[in-house]
Amino acid sequence: MRTPSKRSAIVVVVFLAVLALPAAAWALTSPKTTVDSPAEGAEVSGTLKITGTASHRVGVAGVRLVVRNLDDGTYFDGDTWQRDFIRFDIPVANPGSTETGWIYTLPTDRLTQGNYRARAFAYSVEGTGDGFGGDWNEFTYLGRYDRALYDTVITAPINGQTVRSGALSIAGTATSTEGVASVKVVVRNLNTNSYWNGYDGQWQASFIRTEAKLNHTDGRAQAAWTVGIPAEHAKPGTYFSRAWVRTDSGLGDPVGRGQTTFIVDSTTTTTTTPPTSTTSVPTTTTSPPTTAQPTTTTTEPTTTTTLEPTTTTSPPTTTTSPPTTAKPTTTTTEPTTTTTSGSTGRRPYAQGTVDWELIASDDFNGTKLDDNMWEYGWWRTSDNNYDRPVSKSETACYHTDQVTLSDGELRLAMRPTTANEDAAGVCQKRDGSPAYFVSGYATTRQRYQIQPGTYIETRMHMPGEGNVLYNWPAFWTTDIDRTFGSRWPHSGEFDVAEILRGQACGNFHYATEQGGNHLQTGKRCSTVSANTWAVFGMKWNYDGTVEYFHDGKQVQDRGDGGDWVIDTTALAGAFATDYSHNIALQHGMHNSSREGYKEPTADNPLTVRFDYVDVYKL
User: Fold this and answer.
1) Contacts of 283 (CB under 8 A, 6+ apart)
2) Strand partners, 226
3) Number of domains in the chain
4) Among 474, 481, 377, 466, which residue's Cα sits nearest to residue 430?
5) Domain containing residue 417
6) Range list of β-strands (E), 353-406
7) Is residue 7 included in any domain, yes or no?
8) Hey, what long-range contacts does 487-490 have (CB within 8 A, 24 or more apart)?
9) How far apart are CA 122 and CA 68, in angstroms?
10) What's the CA gap between 374 and 392, in Å, rounded?
11) What is the CATH number of the domain that holds 122?
């Protein structure tokens, strides 16, 4: 075989060296970038922040980021997802420096659960760029919320405890994977029906959440907190307290899971043994309710709210009999409220043996609404307990005396106005014109709100004729804080059971821009017989999808059996990951042009009845 000459070898070496010159020059002039987090293979929930570093010998001007959804092959352009490859500009911490960090937070309303890749390309002040991009990372996004994202616990006084009178300290812990920014606490004196206002150091008649003192304010994931009440204001009596944790962004525990009921007594020593409550758990169905509904006998403690008492529980039994109109029979030593938290042995209707946690339940066994959970009316601006309606289309006002509890039911009644009311002009439509019917309304408003990862359910009995239901009853939710503006429906509205033209319908109302037109997605209606009991539920999943159930059957989907995905162009589209909704129970009145219109009379008022409201954490 012929061997190369020395001259040939020299030529080859020189040729390779010439080829290497541009690469060496590029190596000296090109910026360098890394993606530091999320780490390769990481699983991320909550806020998604992508971070890294960029360096160059003469200074870094900026970074161009590539974020790709590996599941559908689309690329994020800083606002929306598109099919074409794209790099979008993000700022660096110290422009012009030879090495700098950078960070980009993806809008949560533009994310879905799935697999992603992040890669960064830096460019220098000379205009040269990182042609290859630094090493990239691939990771999985689990969603905005997880089961342990927020939590609040009250550690003292414990539920059912009797404490000696004197200066009172309510204490607990708060956790958030996004950092604890604040804790809001309600302290209510159940004897005087007043609330502690820690801002001015006084008790007041209206509901208020006071801010707790944290043991640190540096945004750590856990913080201890306290609320102090001076001895002169901690009078003997029964108290209820609930706590909510919040992050810097204002998000947090939507339901106030930290709860306690305790007694202040000047005549006894401190005890840590809560009262014992013996409860027979009602028969629970894993499919439709049974013909013979359960009989429940409950011995209530002296406090007004049952919150995780020591219980003796007989195991639930199940049956598969079809639903009937029978109402559960309940025998109760009279409490003033029946709201529970942390209960077990109860299942959502027709959902089988799902492992959901019952975090709140009101069976309406008392004589009045539980003031720790419910409020009357919508606007809360009217005098003499009258309130204008929610919608300009309603022809009835609200009044507190139309909201009553009887035989284990919440009843919202509707009647005509009296001559005295007409003369005084106290019952008004939303526009201030006279309304000639008076109805009832209850909402959890500031007391209690829900977020993704929640299933809510109620059992309703509505007046009507045949399969036509009367007027405008509803079981629905909305963002009471109007996060996306005061104009309806910018902040979104879930209708779990809205009676429209005689049928029970599920729907979502929204707009795509400030001042934009009203839009609605996924409206589905079902036929419900009048004057019978029917169960309505809504499952708000962690990924923002929603499922509606009427008597256990899913009635709301995209038409192909899939879950309903909120329109991402909706102004309130981010609600699926970013904010809370209150629960509302309404008995409204349409105008006479609507099918199912029925005017009540003094002798025949119309009443919508609610058996219970349950809230489950998924």
Assistant:
1) 290, 293, 294, 316, 317, 318, 319
2) 171, 213
3) 3
4) 377
5) 375-617
6) 357-362, 375-376, 386-387, 397-399, 403-406
7) no
8) 487/511, 487/514, 487/515, 488/518, 489/518, 489/572, 490/514, 490/516, 490/571, 490/572
9) 18
10) 23
11) 2.60.40.650
If you search the block for the tokens 């060496």, which residue do you land on?
A: 24
Cα 346 to Cα 565: distance, rounded to the nearest angstrom: 29
Say whether pLDDT at 297 is over 90.
no
| 3-class secondary-structure state, position 10 | helix
Q: What are the tens digits of pLDDT across the range 63-110?
A: 999 999 988 889 999 888 888 999 999 999 999 999 999 999 887 667
Farthest-apart Cα atoms in the chain, separation: 121
Q: Are 120 and 137 in contact (CB under 8 A)?
A: no
Residues 444 and 547 placed together within one structural domain of the fold: yes
DSSP string, 464-489: EETTEE-SEEEEEEE-TT-TT-SSTT
Would you place residue 516 in the very low, low, confident or very high pLDDT band (cuts 50, 70, 90)?
low
Same domain? For 463 and 556 the reply is yes
Among residues 115, 143, 171, the one where a domain terminates is 143
Q: What is the pLDDT of residues 339-391, one digit of tens each?
A: 444 434 456 775 666 778 888 889 999 898 988 889 888 776 555 689 888 88
Q: How far apart, in whole angstroms, are the C-alpha atoms of residue 92 and residue 174?
A: 34
pLDDT in tens, 138-192: 998 876 555 456 788 899 999 889 999 899 999 999 988 778 999 989 898 988 8
Q: Would you state the structure tokens that stand for residue 365, as one six-digit string? A: 């066994």
Cα dihedral 389, 391, 394, 397, rounded to 10, equals: 0
16 lies in some domain? no
Q: Which of 223, 248, 265 is the last residue of a domain?
A: 265
50 - beta bridge partners?
Answer: 104
Rounded-to-integer distance, Cα 356 and Cα 618, Å: 5
SS3 at position 24: helix
